[in-house]
Amino acid sequence: MSQKTIYHNGKIATNSTPYFAEAMAVEDGMVLATGTSSNLFQTREAGTKRVDLGGRTVIPGLNDSHMHVIRGGLHYNLELRWDGVPSLVDAMRMLKEQVLRTPAPQWVRVVGGWTEFQFAERRMPTLEEINKVAPDTPVFVLHLYDRAMLNAAALRAVGYTKDTPDPPGGEIQRDKRGTPTGMLIARPNASILYSTLAKGPVLGYEDQLISTRYFMRELNRLGITSVIDAGGGFQNYPDDYKVIEDLHKRGQMTLRVAYNLYTQHPKHEIEDFSKWTSSASLYQGDHTLRLNGAGENLVFAGADFEDFLQPRPDLDHTLETQLESVVRLLAEKRWAFRLHATYNESIERFLNVFEKVDRDIPFNGLHWCFDHAETISDQNIGRTVALGGGIAVQHRMAFQGEYFVNRYGAGAAKRTPPIRRMLEMGAHVGAGTDATRVASFNPYVSLYWLVSGRTVGGMQLYGGENRMSREEALRLYTQGSSWFSAEEDVKGSLAPGQLADFAVLTSDFFSVPEQEIKDLQSVLTVVGGEVVYASEDFSQLAPPPLPAALDWAPTAHYGGYYNPVSHVGAAMHYGCSRHHASAASRGPERLGESLWGLGCDCFAF
User: Which of 101, 129, 280, 327 is deepest in the core (most CB within 10 A)?
Assistant: First the structure.
């Protein structure tokens, strides 16, 4: 039996009735009751603990319905994050500093989560600028799903020369002499970007454990208590899941993770799913770590890339045949599934397959969903609802909205995705980020996008007809997301019988100026009644500091998402000053796969 705790003197958003409460009682990892402080104090017993919230706003723990947390955790401590950095000058200063501290043969990697439009200069760095600050240390800078910039040292490390052929769907940009410049371009297949990234050294196993814990704590700092991991390219099951499973066995999870299995073998997808549905059980595990089904990639023929700098790709003519065999198997086995789908044209073909399978094997309550669905039509929303499906939406347009408007026009952008229509038509909708590469993992940037309808660069994408109230946005990020892991009975609200997962915020989400939503953080994050992050007035409740990161790790110096208050050192991010370890503690380094990765047309969503 855990100690009963009464959290009082707060503004607690319950997502229930009444919507706001002043106090909440928690016991055995569950919400026991909500109400007024005086009423709950009457239920005190010997040993009951009290926590004064100091009038702060409390929200249910945020639940990202689509993130790549398992893969992200394996590499988090290797990556220099430009998420939220306000200027290119700041970004390049960070890069220069990190180059000086990074030991050979390690790379400096800036891997997604940023856009040129967030910078005051409104531009990306040039290859000349990157080479100037990093003449000898390999540097890899990824921008969304459209390009990667490699300095000369990185080109040497990966071995790209005049004689290196362009891969399918990608381009190695070259000068007039045919020499690679360092710019890799997805046209539109991002495989070139991620197969190149995979060539860099990786962390040893123990450092991967530490790195994943740092990433979880960074998410906790932002009030995230649950995520659904959508798999990803170069994320093989079960090998790349050993770290997260080991942390679960050790009781070191501070984040609830429901994970999907993503096929890695083009034209052999049915073999993967046949093996997995025979050897594993849907929802095996517990509410801390559980198998959530198949996807987000079901067949490689169905990969509709979301690079809005490139024209919409036409899907392979074999799509229907390949997809039907996989979906028929999953329906027979009653396995939940999700499918990456950016464009309505793709969704149209996917639904044709789903409806055909449903006529033979009724979905009948099967949890399935589309991911992204930026341009889905009302007709196809209706077809999705008729099959009992959901739509997981992310703030990718907050990072790519300017590119979409430039290609398709402001009118088309007004419903990308048409969230209001999804809700009006009865679809299950959950919110998220699609982090860590195509967008930032910061949920408040996503909540800001939902509420304001603006990109991170300030462009107004949506009018009032496709913007959410703050209460609606929060519901999408909590109750809405819980459906996508079939946990709506225990997650998403702070009502009696629900898991005690919640975050106490730096400011009031419901009343701060719209622009300031992006700046919110948590000062106290609780998962299952246990404190997983605490700062400021709650510092005395903080969990023990994490094991030391590598002394040269970017996260040890800059943390994760840019925080102007504590950016001079990551210690304030984590409530920990023990970030320095001997270089001898690093595990063995391993080079990635040969020239184009796994020999497949794989790209990482």
Answer: 327
